[in-house]
Amino acid sequence: MKSSVSLQGSSLDWLLSTQGRGIQPGLHRMERLLSTLGNPEQSLRCLHVAGTNGKGSVCAFAESVLRNAGYHTGFYSSPHLVDFSERIRIDGKPVDEERIAAGVGRLRQAVRDWNPLELPTFFELVTALAFDLFAGAGCEIIVLETGLGGRLDATNTVPKIACAITPIGLDHTEWLGVTLAEIAREKAGILRTQVPVVIAPQEPRAAEVLSEVAAQTGAPCVWVNEPLPSHLRLGLTGSHQRWNAAVALALLHAGKFSIPEEAIRKGLADVYWPGRFQRLRNGKLILDGAHNLHAVRSLVATWHEEYGDQKCQLIFGALLDKHPLDMLLLLEQIAEKIFLVPVVSPRSVDPQRLLETLPSSKRSLYHAFPSLREAMASVFSSPPASDATKISEERADCPSVLVTGSLFLVGEVLAFESGGQSKPRIQ
User: Fold this and answer.
1) What is the pTM of this model?
2) What is the CATH number of the domain that holds 317?
């Protein structure tokens, strides 16, 4: 992946520095910012996707099929794994640095007279930047992933031609509510009158809320009841991706796109979405950004589909609010050894403290490392300590190393593999 070096210290540094403003639900700042920019979002035609898990994959499938059908596409997602420009793609490629720098310059100009206490958040600024760049590039169709929730998400300011909601689970409860019903209601906030919505299979209470909101809103509702047939090849691994691909195709149908069969086949097969059971080092290293219980269940199922009863050497790092102990309980069934590492984020779980919270009967399965780099060295080459040397010898014939627990951690591995370095970030 390309580096952002030339932007560091200038436009991009200013934008990244706004992460400290945190998450502040509400659309008033976003609406004011877009108005100041000349409302670039009003020229866009968007497919809008919300949900807890799978929304990025659904977007990636939909965009890939549209691009292979000849459409001039924009694709907005978050977070980025290595390079900021991954968040904003035009025709499948990250936006170049010159466009980003010019767009950030317009943002700075737009907010120069704002009261510091009322400034937009990082995500609001990045979303406005994406809308501005998509409008400037004349994109025909935008595939848009929500950031957090739906109703008060910055992406919920665009005109839409169709929406989709992927499976909903308990995540971001500090912002979206503590029950599945509350979270589903927030996600359903993207629905609009007479704009069709495609809905993936849901837990009963979430399904009930989504049906209720769709009826109240007047949004025609399509439920996806079957995964994509097995004869169609996918570029992403796992049976859950067949459900995501089915949602993506239903979304394109709801948006009234007429896509040639060959474009569907090629778009589904050629899709690229890193950090989702992504194989590196000839399959010896697998990266998966599963960071909540629902995603971990899918990851464990995919591991069994691919490797049966074989076990992995698991490198795990997570953020404090992601219930790491519950995730580890599920992951233990596929792990021969588990190596706890920090994530490059101030929100990271401390691996040593996490180790100390585990029952003493399980601690022989676990080892804590002060950094990802040291854990990787232990797994793949010369370990940093005598204790880790023994671990490395035990793993010599292991088929695969699996890194999971956080997309930030996956990004750090990708940077590590390409010879770069991941910078600490919050969002």
Assistant:
1) 0.91
2) 3.90.190.20
What CATH number does residue 140 fall under? 3.40.1190.10
CA distance 182 to 148: 14
Can you give the residue range of the structural domain that contains 379? 278-417
Upper half-sphere CA count for residue 108 (Cβ side, 13 Å): 15
Task: Tell whether 425 is covered by a domain.
Answer: no
Number of domains in the chain: 2
The distance from CA 123 to its chain's CA centroid, rounded to whole angstroms, is 14
pLDDT digits (tens, 9 = 90+) for 269-316: 999 999 999 999 888 999 999 999 999 999 999 999 999 999 999 999
Same domain as 187, residue 52: yes
Which segments of 166-320 are extended strands (E)?
A: 197-199, 221-223, 278-280, 285-287, 312-316
Chain centroid to Cα 397, Å, comes to 32
Phi first, then psi, for residue 219 (nearest 5°) are -100, 120
What DSSP assignment string belongs to 145-188?
E-SS-STT-GGGGS-EEEEEE----S--HHHH-SSHHHHHHHHG
Evaluated on CA atoms 220, 226, 230, 233, the torsion sign reads positive
39 and 149 in one domain? Answer: yes
Provide the token pair at 1: 């992946």
Q: Are 120 and 15 in contact (CB under 8 A)?
A: no
Reported as a single tens digit per residue, the pLDDT across 6-50 is 444 477 889 988 988 877 888 999 999 999 999 999 999 999 999
**What CA–CA distance (Å, rounded) separates 210 from 201?**
11
Q: How far is CA 223 from the centre of its chain?
A: 23
Write out residues in the chain with pLDDT < 50, as ranges. Answer: 1-9, 382-398
Alpha-carbon distance 221 to 193, whole Å?
Answer: 11
